[in-house]
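Note to self: user wants both folds in one dump. Writing first protein now.
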Amino acid sequence: MANGTGIRLGARVSELSVFAIERSIVRRGFVLLALVLPGHVLNYALLVGATHLLVSDAFGIFYAAIAIINVLFAPSLVLSLFLARHFARLKAQAGPGAAVEAFRQAFRLIARWGLLALFLGLAALGVIGSLVGVESFVLIALIVLTAYMAYVTDVVRAAFQGLQLFVLLGLMGLAWMALRFGLGMAGLGIVGTPWAGLVGILASGLIVCAIFYHVVLRRRDAKPIAEAAFPIEVRKLVQFTMGFSLFSVITYLDVLVGYLVMERASFGVYAASSVLPKAIILLSLPVGQVLFPVLTDEESVGRVRSTSVAKGLGLTFFVSAVGSVIVLAFADFFCGEGFGITLADPELVRLLTLSAIPICLLRVVVMRELARGRDWHPLYLMIPLLPFTSYLLGADTLDAFAYAQSYVIFALVVFAFYAIASLATFDRAKADRAKALAR
C-alpha cells in the first residue's frame, strides 16, 4: 500500500514538474531571446566593422571565409537538437547526473572523431594550399579549425538546452558573440588582415567552450554517475538529421535554387534582399530552443500537453511578427548607405519578409514531431518540396519579384500542409495508443 502511494505520489510530482515547465515557456523564451538578441547585433556589427578596417579585396576574402564557416557549421544545429533531446530524456528518466555523464561522453566522442576528420581535411587541403599560395592555405586551415571549434562548442550548448538551463544557454551565446566581436575586431584592427580576424573568432570559441564545459560538469544538482543509460544510436541520429535537414532546405530553398536559375546580377540583389527575412527566422530560434526540451520532457513522462505547443506557436508568431513589422517599416533604412545592405532592394525585402512567419511556425511543428521521437515524420515535407523545386528549376524566365512571390506562396502552403499532416497523424497515433491500452 505504501509502495503504491509512493508511486502515485512520484507520478504526481512528475506531472507537476512538467506543468511548471510548460507554464514557463513564454517567460523562458523571452529571457533567452533577450540574451540572444544582443549577440545577433554584435555578429552584424563585426561585419560592419570589418568594412571600415579592411580594404575592399581583403573584406571580400574575410566575408567569404565567414560564409564558408556558416555553411560548414549549418548541420551543427541538427546535431545540437538531437543531443539536446537525448540529454532531456536522460534527465527526465534517470536524473540530471545521467545527462551530465552522457554529455561528457558525447563531448569526448565528437571532439575525438572531429579531430581525426580535421587532420584528414587539412592534409587534403595542404595539396590545394601548395597550388594557391601559403596565405590561402592559412585561411583554409583557419576556416576548418573555426568550424570544428564551433561544432564542439555546440555540444556544450546542447547540454544546457537538454538540462533546461536556459539562462546559462543564453549567457553562453552572448559571451561567445561578445568575444567573437571583440577578438575579431582586435585582430582586424591590429594586424589588418583577414586571417587575423579569423584567429580572433577561433579563439573566442575556444575560450567559451573551455569555460562553459566545466560549468556543465560542476552542476551541484547533477553528480555524474559511472555510466549513462540510453546510449545514442547512429541510426536515430541519421533519421533525425534527415528530418530536420528538410526544414533547413526549405528555409534556404529560394537562395539555393536561385543561384542556379537567376542571372548573376539579379541573384546578387535577391540574395542581399533575403538577408533580413532569413534573420527573422534565426531570431525566433530561441523559442524553439526552450520548447524542444520541454516537449521531450513531457513525452518522456507520458504527459504530452497541447498547451505547450500552443504557447510555442504563439510566442514564435509574436517574435517573428514583431521582427517582420520592423523590417517592413524600416526596409528603406536597412537597405541604405552606412550601416545598411546597399545591394538589397527595399521592396523585394518587404515581399520576402512575408515568408518569415510561416517558416518560423513550420519549425515549431517540425520540432514537435522530433521531440515526440517521430524522426521520420518531417519526410512528409518532401510532398510539397519536390514539385515546387521542379517548378523553380523550370522557371528561368521569372524575374526576382515573381520568383519571390512564388516562394512566399510556397512558404504559406508548406506550413499549412505540414500542420494538417501533423494533426492528422497525431490523432491516428493517439487512436493506436488507445487500442494498445485496451488490449
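First done. Writing the second protein, which came from a different request thread.
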Amino acid sequence: MEIEKWYRANFDYEYDLYDIPISFKQRLKICREFEYLYFYTPLDGGLILHGNLSKNFLQTCPYLHPVRQYQQNKHKKYENLWGSLTDVEVERHINSKLFSLELENKLALNKCNKQLITNENELNSYCQNNILAEKILQSPYLFSGLQQKQFVEAVPIQIDYPVIASCRLNRIFDIGTVVQDGKRQYSYLNLNNKLGKYRGTIFFKSDNLFKEFVCSYYRLKVGDIDHIFSDLADSIEKLINIVDVHSFQVDSFTFDNGTCLDLYPLVEINYRTTLGSLAFMISRDFNSKYIAMRIIPAKKGRTATYNRLSPDGNLFDLFLEGFDSTSELFHYLDYFNKYDPI
C-alpha cells in the first residue's frame, strides 16, 4: 500500500527559518541525531529519514509504535514535524529571542540585565556596567546553549553580532510550560547542565507532585515553591494575552536572589516542537506518577539498566522511564549525573 502522507523531522528548523548558512553534512548530522524519536509517536504517515536505522533498533527498542513506513531522504512532498515553516514571518518573530527580550522589558520581567548587543562598543559598555558578573552571550536565533559564550573579564574575540548579553544568576531549576488554545496545559521540569544545555525533562501527574519533588530534590521550602507557581501562573496569563498563536511553549527558571527563591518567568518562547513536548507525546500512555527523560553524551560500551530509546552510533544516548516513587526517580537522576551532571 502506497503511503499518501510523508513527514520530515526538520531539526535544522532554525537554520532554514533564519537563513543561517549550514553545510549539507552538518544539516544531516543535526537531523539524524533525534529523528528516531518520531518512530515512537503515532504519525498518520511515513517518515523521511536522513540516515539509516538498524533492524536491531527497529526490532528491540521499547515503546516503539507499530511498525512505520519510512524511506531515505528523497524528493517527496512532506510536512515538517519540528517546526512547520508554513507562516515564516510569524514563526521568525515569535521564535526569536529578540521577541522574548521585548516581552521581558515590556512586562518588567528582565531580572538579569539582559540586553541586545549589536557591535563591539555596545559589548564593551555592557561589560563595564556589569564588571564583576559572569556574563553570557548567545545567538538570538539558535537553540539555547548553541554558540553560547560565557566569561567574566576576558571578552571573547570572535563574536557574530547581534547577540543577547545577560548576567548569570544562581540558577536552581528550570520549568517548561505548554500553552494551547489560550490556556496553560501543563508545566514540567527541564534538566539543564551548567552551560544551559538541555539534558532532559521530568513530567508529573499533577502540580502537587511537581512541587513535592522539587522541594525534596532541591531541599526547598514549600512556601517558596507555592509563590513560584503562583508567579508563573500570573506571567503565563500575561503572555497568553499578548502572544496571539494557537500554541506555544515558555521556558522559565528559578534562582536564588540572595534572599529567597525567585522566578525568572520568561527565558524564551518556542513556537515549535521541543524535546520536552516530544517526550510528553511519546509517554502520554504511561500511567506512572513521574516520567523522566534523560540525555547524556554517548559512550561506546556503556551499559545501563534503564530503557534507551536512541540507536547505536548517536552522539547522545536518550533514556525514557516511568516511576511511581521519588526514591526510584532520585536513583535514576543520580545514576546519570555520574556521567553528565546537571
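Dump finished. Worth passing along: DSSP finds ten helices and 15 strands in the chain.
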